[in-house]
Structures are given as C-alpha cells and as structure tokens.
Write a structure and sequence with these properties.
Layout (H helix, E strand, L loop, with lengths): L1 E3 L2 E4 L5 E6 L4 H13 L3 E5 L5 H12 L3 E6 L2 E5 L9 E5 L4 H12 L6 E5 L10 H7 L4 E5 L8 E6 L6 E5 L4 H10 L7 E6 L5 H13 L5 E3 L3 E4 L10 E3 L4 H13 L1 E7 L12 H7 L3 E4 L3 E5 L6 E2 L2 E3 L4 H10 L3 E2 L2 E4 L11 H11 L3 E4 L3 E5 L10 E3 L5 H8 L8 E4 L11 H6 L4
Parallel strand pairs: 3-16, 4-15, 7-8, 11-12, 19-21, 20-22, 25-26
Antiparallel strand pairs: 1-2, 2-26, 4-6, 5-6, 8-10, 9-10, 12-14, 13-14, 16-18, 17-18, 22-24, 23-24
Helix pairs in contact: 1-2, 1-3, 1-6, 2-3, 3-5, 4-5, 5-6, 7-9, 9-11
Length: about 425
C-alpha cells in the first residue's frame, strides 16, 4: 500500500485474517458526551472515539462552557452543567457530524433566557435536512432562524419562550436523528410531554441506542411501540459515574466482510452479544450470504471456506443503513443479484450514497440498478472486476472504507481522498492493511 498525493493505492491481495480492536462507536460517543454535559455531576467516559465527529462535539461543548478533563488516551471526565449551558452566546462549527449538529440544535433551542447560538458546518452539512427537527420543536416556543436555505443549516438559535404544550410530533421517515435529538433534549423542559412519530420510523436501532443511554443517565422514556414516546415532568439527567463506550459496530462490518471474502478468520473485538448497537445485525446478513459467523460477549468472527463463493440476497436494510453499504460491496463477490431495499436515508447522508455507490460500482464492471430507495448489484459476468480503478469517495468516510475491500478480489484499486475516514476511524487503513496477505 502506498500513498501518492491525495490517493491511496491498495495492491491486489487474496487473503485476509487477523484480529482488529475496534475504535469506540460514533453513535454512542457523541450521545454520551451530550448527555454527560446535560447531567448533574461529573461522568468519566472511557473508550471515546477519537475522530473528526467527536472532536467537533467536544469543541462545541467546550465553547458552551462545559468543563472537560482529558484523563489520557480515550478517557475523559465531563462535568455536567445540569441542563443549562454556562455560555449564552457562541458560534459552533460542527463539520459534517449529524450526531453533533442535530442533538445540539435541540438542546440549545430548549435553553431559556437570552441566548444566541450560530451553528454551521461543511458545505455538505448545508445540504442535509434539519427542517423536520425544527418543525417538531416549533410548538415549544423555540426561536430558530435559517440563515441560508429554509429547512437546512446554517442556523441561529435564540432560545425559547415559555409555551405550555404536552404533545409534539416529528417525522420519522427521513432520519431517526430528529427523534433522538428531541428525546435527548426534552428533559430540559421539566414538564411531561409526548412525542408522536409521523410516518414510518427508520433506523430504529439508533433510537434504541438513544433510549438505552438516556436510561444510564437516569431518564426513562415511556413508549407506545414506535409511535409515541413520553417523558415525565421530573425527568432529570444525573451523572452515569462512568461509561465505557462499545466498539463501533458499523466499522466492524468492513473487517467482517474482509473475513468473508478473504477467507479469514477475521475477528473484531469490542462488540458482540452484549452490544446495544443494531449494526451487529450485519453479521446475520453476512451469514445469510454464506459466511461462517461466530460471536462471543464482546467479539465477532467471520470466515468463508476455501473455494466457496457468497450468495446474493434480497433484503430490507432500513434497520442498518450504514452497514448496508458494505453489503453493496459484498455483492461483487456473490453469485446473482443482491438487492438492498428501503434505504432512502442514503440520499441525505454525507453524500447521496445511492448515486455515489452506483457510479463507483459501475467503474468496477458491475451491473447496477438504482431507485429512489434501493440499489441492485450484479457482479461482472465473468466475476472479474476491473483492475486499477480510481474510486471517488465524495468526502464520505464509508465510501472509502467500503471500497477498500475491492483489493481482495485480486485487483489493484485506488482510493481518492483516503483521509476522509478521519470522520469516524482515522486509523482505518492501517488496521485494514494488517489483515491483508
């Protein structure tokens, strides 16, 4: 593997095996940071993901007056502010981190008194919708101004006026982050309130993560299925004392896939039976495609018998849209056409992932059909991928990590802008390289 300018060339290989210690989960890391900041008392967070997305959350909380001690490595002590940020005016740059931008918008909107916060990010963040979250907050007397295109960042948040309502609604069919953001912020109201989900709630496992972590900080949410969520008037965040962040299950998908297409065994540590992350269900999909999967309390291992080829699947991946991107790459190594359905949320991620995947997979010789909420991938007729292809990554970390797997087809591949993996996994290519032979 050699790096030239802004591109990374991965040489043709045929085997992958070894053990990978996963970095902390992005979803758990940024939720934990915010909940710790909103709680009463200090919380020690161990195993925090070291990445661009967590860096912008830490920087934002620091600007808002939250005291943060770095205890060494990936261990931090967050001193909670009891739901009231000490700094009333701040300009926050949140990169392309949806797990920072959306929850912070809600938490800042529910601050009382004279407030003035400006929130912005990279150009792609200005194309990612936030209007449904703002509309959900509107009945609470919030004051949010769009300074660019209506419904999208950047925003100016000026706090709220007192409004007595006991029910609000939010759409669930664009991003589950809108519901998660509301749920995390609503205890600041100190009044009983119910959130109604309008339409189908996508990415439900991510909401489960939110509810699980809120409970760790002392706030229990009453549920009526996936339609209604009620918070009591006495809901108050309390220090969780100590939180150990799980390994990132989404990142695990690339290494488990490498174990399947490169023979393996490849083991990831940090997630397993005890995980609260829905993306461990990726292992089930990999098993359905023919891979051998073993799992322990905090590890998962994947392999594939010699001379065996994966089998195509046709499945709904609404529950694990991020890990489903790896399935699109596995389709190149499977017999038949793999169809990934109910993934409309790909359109509003770091890039339009359905369009980006279609373009890049076709470069490799695959037949690809895309629709509004699905993608169908058929490998080349002779099962040989085009060698030496340059893959554009669209400033999307998951595009870079997914397409690294192509080298296991025995072809060279060039990954443009490999540094984009810094969003969630700065050391990804080093970890991936150690598996190859």
């Amino acid at each position: 593997m050699s790096k030239v300018d802004a591109a990374l060339r991965l040489a043709a290989v045929s085997r992958a095996n070894g053990v990978v210690v996963l970095p902390g989960s992005k979803s758990i890391s940024n939720r934990t940071l915010l909940l710790a900041a909103l709680s009463e008392g200090p919380t020690v967070v161990r195993g925090l993901l070291q990445s661009d997305d967590t860096a912008v959350m830490l920087a934002a909380l620091g600007k808002l007056g939250v005291k943060i001690d770095v205890l060494g490595g990936d261990v931090y002590r967050i001193f909670g502010c009891g739901g009231v940020f000490p700094v009333a005016q701040a300009t926050l740059f949140l990169g392309n981190a949806g797990t920072a931008f959306r929850p912070l918008t809600a938490a800042l909107a529910l601050q009382s008194g004279a407030r003035h916060y400006q929130l912005d990010g990279v150009p792609r963040m200005r194309e990612r919708p936030i209007g449904d979250l703002v509309d959900g907050l509107a009945p609470l007397g919030i004051n949010i101004e769009y300074t660019g295109q209506s419904g999208f960042p950047p925003l100016i948040v000026s706090g709220r006026t007192s409004t007595a309502v006991d029910r609000i609604a939010v759409r669930g069919d664009v991003s589950s982050q809108f519901l998660s953001a509301l749920l995390m912020a609503l205890p600041l109201l100190k009044s009983e309130i119910t959130v109604e989900v309008v339409g189908e709630l996508i990415s439900k496992p991510y909401v489960e993560i939110t509810l699980n972590l809120m409970a760790r900080f002392g706030v229990m949410v009453q549920r009526n299925g996936w339609r209604e969520f009620t918070l009591s008037a006495d809901a108050t965040y309390l220090s969780a004392q100590e939180v150990n962040v799980e390994g990132d299950a989404s990142s695990a998908s690339y290494f488990l896939a490498a174990g399947a297409i490169g023979g393996g065994p490849v083991r990831v540590t940090g997630v397993g039976h005890s995980s609260i992350q829905g993306d461990i269900k990726f292992a089930d999909a990999l098993s359905e495609m023919g891979a051998s999967i073993n799992m322990g309390e905090d590890w998962i291992e994947a392999s594939l018998p010699a001379h065996k080829r994966l089998t195509a699947i046709d499945a709904d991946f609404n529950h694990i849209p991020d890990a489903a991107m790896t399935i699109a790459i596995l389709a190149l190594f499977a017999n038949g056409t793999t169809t990934i359905r109910n993934i409309a949320s790909w359109r509003v991620k770091e890039t339009d992932r359905i369009a980006a995947m279609t373009i890049e997979l076709r470069k490799l010789g695959a037949e690809v059909v895309e629709g509004p909420d699905f993608i169908a991938v058929t490998p080349p007729r002779d099962a040989r991928l085009v060698s030496g292809v340059s893959i554009d990554t669209y400033d999307d970390h998951r595009m870079a990590m997914c397409f690294s797997l192509v080298c296991l087809a025995g072809v060279d591949v060039v990954i443009n802008d490999p540094a984009c993996v810094g969003k969630t996994f700065p050391g990804y290519f080093d970890a991936f390289r150690r598996l190859l032979s």
